[in-house]
Amino acid sequence: MREVYNFSAGPAMMPKKVLEKAQQELLNWLDQGTSVMEVSHRGKLFMELAAQSEADLRKLYNVPENYRILFLQGGARGQFAAIPMNLMGQKGKALYLNSGHWSATAAKEARNFTEIDEINILETDPQLKVKRLDFSDIAEQYDYVHYCTNETISGVEIVDIPNVGNTPLVADMSSNILSRGIDISKFGVIYAGAQKNLGPAGITIVIIRDDLIGNARKDTPSIWNYAVQRDADSMINTPPTFAWYLCSLVFKHLLAEGGLKNTEECNLAKAALLYDYLDSSKFYYNTVAKENRSLMNVTFTTGNDELNAKFVSEATACGLQALKGHKVLGGMRASIYNAMPIEGVKALIEFMKEFEQRNA
């Protein structure tokens, strides 16, 4: 069977070694004669797995002791509602920074629960570029400030951390979590759906500072209440145990590969290869300013819808899967998350060169 490279934006490819480990243990986890999917989430062995997975994630991200890690459900969309339900205080207002589709979607959901102000921080002419990140002059009037660190659809990444003074900063990191090292202490809350870099769809990570837990509005459903979930060790109901198990394998894999320093170096190298080729081509182009180009989601187009469709079709036939851009934007999108090997990026570039020669 020929090598297939999956450029899906999510659910995305997972590390081959992780999948092989899961395959090996699928029918007999820890010599129990059963699958991890078949054991009680409150049993001794699974509780040990849960504790170790948190310890490994803390080590990977250097998470301070005054932060709690929750393993929840409902994806990032669930957190779009949970954030305002848990963080709204006496100020009664939140600030949302709009840099694209997902940050705007989070703001739309938050309006169902609280008053918000929304500021567009993205310039679109001639390229997509973040124009402002200092909000220290206005942030103190809000209970929290929310932004999305990486817009999966457009391929816009915000590397610098917004300046919001002492106001809690909330970050949706669904599509670039664990792609590089960050200073967790700069954030009040970080949340991410797992299906990009953490594991399979079905589990959501929330990293939250202790002092922000316990302030939920009275009508907050218990499953969205951070204090309830903290006190129940993220197990107020039966958690997605298989997804949790796979995340635990991913954390161990990343640690074994050298941690986030090595991960970041690999991601920088992959992105540089692809962007350098795009910049040298007169056939394809990317519309994001260099300082805001995503390491995870590389968008590009020929400028011709028919050619774009032909590109995606022929690439798929060559084993380069899921390169069609999101319906909101069109064009093509190569998602090169942590698990994408550099060989996959090289294979994509070779196909792009050959396609350009035949169709320019």
UniProtKB/TrEMBL annotation:
What's its top-level EC category?
transferase
Sites where the protein binds L-glutamate: R42
- Gene3D superfamilies the record matches: Aspartate Aminotransferase, domain 1 (3.90.1150.10), Type I PLP-dependent aspartate aminotransferase-like (Major domain) (3.40.640.10)
Q: Where are the transmembrane segments?
A: none
> At which residues is N6-(pyridoxal phosphate)lysine found?
K196
Record flagged with keyword Cytoplasm: yes
Residue intervals of the Aminotransferase class V domain: 4-348
Q: What is its biological role?
A: Catalyzes the reversible conversion of 3-phosphohydroxypyruvate to phosphoserine and of 3-hydroxy-2-oxo-4-phosphonooxybutanoate to phosphohydroxythreonine.
Can you say what this protein is called? Phosphoserine aminotransferase
The lineage is: Bacteria, Pseudomonadati, Pseudomonadota, Gammaproteobacteria, Pasteurellales
In the UniProt record, the gene name given for this protein reads serC
